[in-house]
Amino acid sequence: MKKIVLAMALMLLFSMSAHAENTKIRFGILPVLDTLPLQVAVQDGLFIGQGLDVELVRFASALERDTALQAGQLDGYFGDLIAACMLVNKNVPMYVALTSWRTTPGFPMFGIAQSPAKKGAMLGAMQGASLGLSKSTIMEFLADKISDSLGIGHQYFEQIEIKKMPIRLQMLLTDQVDCALLPEPLLSLAKFKGGGVLVTAEKLNIPLTVLSLHRKFFLDGADTYIRFITAYKEAVKRLRNDPEKYRQLMAETCRIPGPLVAEFPIYPYPMPSLPTTAELDEVQEWMVEKGMLKRRLPHELMLSPIIP
What we know:
Shape: globular
Helix content: 25-40%
Strand order of the largest sheet: 2-1-3-10-4
Number of domains: 2
Oligomer: single chain
CATH class of the largest domain: Alpha Beta
């Protein structure tokens, strides 16, 4: 009997010790498709299995997320390279840890939707059309990249500042703007509700979104970063091997509208990798041109020193 009690006590002690050693990471996210692997890693206990207590802190907007970051309330975040550059420029001590989504043919994460009144109009008939977007963000960068890919000038559309996504969608569907730059699943929802899709960003071959972690996790051999990457890789593998298992999780955490849940594709998320220095330079040069940065930030200040 004493042996049984002793064994149970040792098991309890080991469990308490292991729990105490779990590294806490408060990770800021937005309710978007790109964050699904993080949701899978939390739901399936993959982070816990690596000794990480990852709390996904949901924000309604990038502005709220950035405010929390600058106040030191987060240990990591989901965003894009433009946001990452802006935050590092404001001395937020983060490294880009991995690319969470890279433009992939067949899986349009962003695109230009047409209003019902403009549905089906060809590109040549859209010159001078109003385009709703959020300026000085990844949206404006994508608008310029899409224009370049189409061989048209950056002034081809009349860009209209509409920061809030729901308002942008509503103005599009009520013909208050001719087109709007939207992420999925709002792009599909616009089409479902009578609009059209002029063009998507799926063939641009650029890193659209990234995950960043505090620089403290890269100390002492970057053990915490490596464990984070290990759990994330397993989440990506599970999504690839059995995507339908996670359809309801996607619907709940990534705000998939009810009418789209059954048919909306579960994306083939990329294995962790870093943006190239050339890709980082392209974004920063664009930001310098727009007056968002005075000069490019050093690569070693932006990108993880460890290749995932």
